[in-house]
Amino acid sequence: MIRNEKKNYSLKVGYTVFTGLVIFFLFIILVGTEGYYFSKTYNLNMYVKNTNGLIEGSKVYLGGLKVGAIDKIEFTTVGENNLVLLRLEILEKYKSRITVNSYAKIETSGLLGDKLINISLGDPSEKPLNENDFIPVKESLSFDNLTDKIDPIVYSIDKIANNIAVITDSLNGKSKLSGILFGMETSNDLKFAIKQLNSLASKLNNGNNTFSRLINEDSLYTGMKTLVDNLQNISDTLKSGKGTIGKLIVNDSLYNNINEITRNLEKVASSLNNNSTLAGGILNNPDGYEKLEILLDQLAKLIEDMNTNPEKYFHISVF
Fold this sequence. Notes:
- This is Mammalian cell entry related domain-containing protein.
- The protein is α+β, with helices and mostly antiparallel strands and 319 residues long.
- It contains 10 helices and 6 strands.
- It has helices spanning 2-33, 143-172, 176-182, 184-206, 210-216, 219-240, 243-250, 252-273, 278-284, 286-308, and strands at residues 41-48, 59-62, 65-78, 81-91, 104-109, 114-119.
- Among the domains are: 1-33; 39-140; 146-178; 251-290, no CATH class.
């Protein structure tokens, strides 16, 4: 009897210890993985060219507040580009704050340089991102990106420095360039040119010639300003359609009338070129012109004879 009681007691202790160990390991797993096993979540996706050290389980922040973690990282191909797909697991209660205009950035946290994803807060009036939507990625400033941008600048500066060194070596040596820049003849020419420029400037400032008056007197500026104002007034008048020229420019009736006259002239010209009309026959047929001339000559003679001898054509009898 006593042996059975000891056995039952040992079993109870064993079960208790085993249960405690299971609970302890479950607690370690839950705390270590920081998974949201008892909270409702949803997934968002993002494409990056470089994870910059992100791993599965890396934290996801929204406006600096932790709201999730990276659930999965895998390679993928989009079009002709090889990218990395990050699947984010985010608490659903923050869904309304991640909208279509939100964006994600890869940032560094702490002295050890832990990588995380920080999502910008969206506007309340904007549409939230839904399950499995893709969030845009904004490139963040990192040491690698900064190095990539600085390298071309450093290369250009180094190239410029080398070119300057070559030029200074040429100037210090016995090259033709150094002789031209530092020779006695060049120095004298420069002094003479400077002297001439000083003389010209003195004449322009103090002389009474045309150029000095144009430079020093205000009458030129006043006249030019008046001319520009007048031209502006003329332009405004033409735009408003005032005056004969303004009406000719603005009003379409002139163009329509000219177009109508042109069409009528084309019809007249076509009629004149056609021999079937009287005018066309007269203009285009030499015989018709000669016959018309003979007819007019005979008609003139007939009228003259009627004036001279009216009795031949008019017989008046009283009875």
